Amino acid sequence: MSRFERVWGRLHRAYESGRDAVRQARADPTGRADVTGRRASPGSIDASAEAGVASPRSPGPVAPPSAVVVGAEPPAALHNSTSSRDDADVPHALRIAAAWSWRLIVIGVVFWALLKIVATVSIVIIPLAIAMLLSALLAPAVGWLLRARFPRSLATAVVLVGGLAAVVGTLTLVVNEFIKGVPELSKKSSEGVRQIQDWLKTGPLHLSDSQLDRYIEEAQSWINNNTERFTSGAVSTAATLAEVLTGIVLVLFATFFFLRDGSRIWRFLVRLLPVAARWKVDDAGRASWETLGAYVRATVLVAFIDAVGIGTFLVIFDIPFAFPLAALVFLGAFIPIVGAALSGGVAVLVALVDSGPVTALIILGVVIGVQQVEGHVLQPLIMGRAVAIHPLAVIIGIAAGVVLAGITGALVSVPLIAVLNTAVRRLAARTVPDTPPDAVVVASQAP
């Protein structure tokens, strides 16, 4: 509808309204003035104004309630329906809270459904997540071999086999050291237990022999009562051996193809998106991959420094299982804050059994000192701002990972938080890359 037609419609409605008002004035039996020019009675002035007809004494025509003024839209009803009247009676704050509530409920239901799906296919998702971590760790080595003009498949195979050999060799050394140290530890354990008992008697606790005997009996009874539970757990663990082997094979295959065809896989995924969203998604994905690689490499370096620091003091104080305990500290450092503390606690317990409480306290001080150096010097210096995560987010992520997927969940939760943090920040940014990467160019040319 053109502007002229809208103006013409308004004029027509005003004309019809005025004609209806004149007809009502003529039909009024009280003697109001009509449009023939006859004088209206003095009392008819107000009536003429109410009827919408101009009188000599009235200031001008007054539109009746049903009249439509030229150039004005008809007044909208205050309440269009019963529901709108009900909404108007509800306080504004309560309406806002209700709107947020149902949206949060929908988000919670979707999140719960995603968790159910992840739990159902966890046997596939967990190996893929571990393969992503290994790929981020080994990708620089593959790139170095590619720059040395190795074929991509050969470079990937060499790096993967070399990494697997390093892991197997380390595990072999740990097992051999453990087997060699068991007889020595068993000999010293009785002496260490006696030292602990003497310390409990003469130390600040001042426990009596009867109290010690009662505590020892309670510990033995607890072990006897829970033997069946431990045995059933071992049996169930043996029953899942096939799943573990399947996961290991899947990790190896996925790592190989992530290292060899990672760029092509990413281009394929970007090509599935709308063209307008490809630039931002590609930028967020590449930044997230860089964050994951930086996190994994920094964690490996920090774990190595922790293991060397604690292992050196274990060797100095002649604590058995020094190398296996150092390897345990190295693995535990992959779980920030919690892992290194737990692995260091194992070293303190071994020192307590082997050398007594004084040496154990010294090892405890070493573990705490290494933790402080790691938290305040190594992580800020090595990881930097690119993967900086608040400690509260780390603790919550580890707790959620343990509840959902056990030790593997604790291992994967923190890098997942780091990746999501980078991805959300890049996607929420208002700017896009000035020059589209190769993956986006290829994707934009796809049909």
TrEMBL record:
<keyword id="KW-1133">Transmembrane helix</keyword>
<dbReference type="Pfam" id="PF01594">
    <property type="entry name" value="AI-2E_transport"/>
</dbReference>
<dbReference type="GO" id="GO:0005886">
    <property type="term" value="C:plasma membrane"/>
</dbReference>
<feature type="transmembrane region" description="Helical">
    <location>
        <begin position="323"/>
        <end position="342"/>
    </location>
</feature>
<feature type="region of interest" description="Disordered">
    <location>
        <begin position="20"/>
        <end position="66"/>
    </location>
</feature>
<feature type="transmembrane region" description="Helical">
    <location>
        <begin position="238"/>
        <end position="259"/>
    </location>
</feature>
<keyword id="KW-1003">Cell membrane</keyword>
<feature type="transmembrane region" description="Helical">
    <location>
        <begin position="294"/>
        <end position="317"/>
    </location>
</feature>
<comment type="similarity">
    <text>Belongs to the autoinducer-2 exporter (AI-2E) (TC 2.A.86) family.</text>
</comment>
<feature type="transmembrane region" description="Helical">
    <location>
        <begin position="121"/>
        <end position="146"/>
    </location>
</feature>
<dbReference type="InterPro" id="IPR002549">
    <property type="entry name" value="AI-2E-like"/>
</dbReference>
<keyword id="KW-0812">Transmembrane</keyword>
<dbReference type="GO" id="GO:0055085">
    <property type="term" value="P:transmembrane transport"/>
</dbReference>
<protein>
    <submittedName>
        <fullName>Predicted PurR-regulated permease PerM</fullName>
    </submittedName>
</protein>
<feature type="transmembrane region" description="Helical">
    <location>
        <begin position="153"/>
        <end position="175"/>
    </location>
</feature>
<feature type="transmembrane region" description="Helical">
    <location>
        <begin position="349"/>
        <end position="372"/>
    </location>
</feature>
<feature type="compositionally biased region" description="Basic and acidic residues">
    <location>
        <begin position="20"/>
        <end position="37"/>
    </location>
</feature>
<keyword id="KW-0472">Membrane</keyword>
<keyword id="KW-0813">Transport</keyword>
<feature type="transmembrane region" description="Helical">
    <location>
        <begin position="93"/>
        <end position="115"/>
    </location>
</feature>
<feature type="transmembrane region" description="Helical">
    <location>
        <begin position="392"/>
        <end position="420"/>
    </location>
</feature>
